[in-house]
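> call design_seq(struct)
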């Protein structure tokens, strides 16, 4: 396992994790809505760090269960971070042409024979995620989630995602419902996701949402529930 990850304190949150990897020479390699990625000094690995990612454990499970298909990234380590963040240490991947990515997602949607075993594994885990998570989206067919390993094969990444629009709209309009449905230790940094693809998300409105949730948490404590 990577020495930086091994040395990371058990209670590290996403900020401590990013700092530890950056201090060890890893460099910023990308940002999405939920997570950022850093690249290892030798270029061979990436670490995906999210402040708030309820689907991370399901993704890690998929990468492990489907490893033998070679259609998902090699996952070297997975860890939950304090406050509901998620860390995945995985092989370094590069983008593919959008047409290739769409074709790959098409094979999955059509349950093509070439990906049949992968699709069975995806279905099993996604069905459970839909049942267990208060907000879980459909499979993410964003073409940027199909990438290429150093060996040239195409893999699908980051297929599961929390239904961000519904979750964040509830967080803003009905924070009491949000705090009732997601325990505080699993959503402490909900307003810190990068939102690099769908953003920008101005600091003031992040702060307003954070305040609304804190007030809802305080009401829960007062009512003793
Ligand atoms: N293994 C990897 N190698 C290189 N870049 C990666 C890797 N995993 C993720 N990234 C990059 O990190 C960013 C966020 O990744 P992603 O897993 O798609 O999260 P999000 O949920 O934010 O879409 C994207 O810019 C993506 O290209
Ligand atoms: Mg993505």
């Amino acid at each position: 396992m990577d020495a930086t990850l091994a040395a990371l304190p058990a209670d590290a949150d996403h900020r401590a994790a990013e700092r530890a990897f950056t201090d060890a020479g890893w460099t910023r390699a990308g940002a999405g809505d939920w997570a950022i990625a850093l690249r290892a000094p030798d270029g061979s690995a990436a670490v995906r760090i999210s402040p708030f990612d309820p689907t991370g454990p399901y993704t890690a499970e998929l990468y492990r269960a489907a490893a033998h298909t070679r259609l998902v990234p090699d996952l070297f380590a997975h860890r939950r971070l304090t406050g509901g963040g998620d860390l995945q240490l995985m092989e370094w991947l590069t983008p593919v042409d959008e047409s290739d990515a769409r074709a790959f997602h098409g094979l999955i949607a059509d349950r093509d024979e070439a990906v049949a075993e992968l699709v069975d594994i995806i279905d099993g885990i996604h069905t459970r995620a839909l049942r267990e998570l208060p907000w879980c989206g459909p499979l993410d067919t964003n073409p940027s989630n199909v990438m290429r390993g150093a060996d040239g094969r195409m893999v699908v990444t980051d297929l599961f995602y929390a239904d961000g629009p519904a979750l964040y709209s509830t967080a803003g309009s009905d924070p009491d419902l949000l705090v009732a449905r997601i325990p505080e230790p699993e959503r402490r940094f909900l307003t810190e996701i990068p939102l690099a693809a769908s953003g920008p998300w101005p600091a003031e409105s992040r702060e307003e949402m954070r305040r609304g949730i804190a007030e809802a948490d305080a009401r829960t404590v007062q009512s003793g529930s």
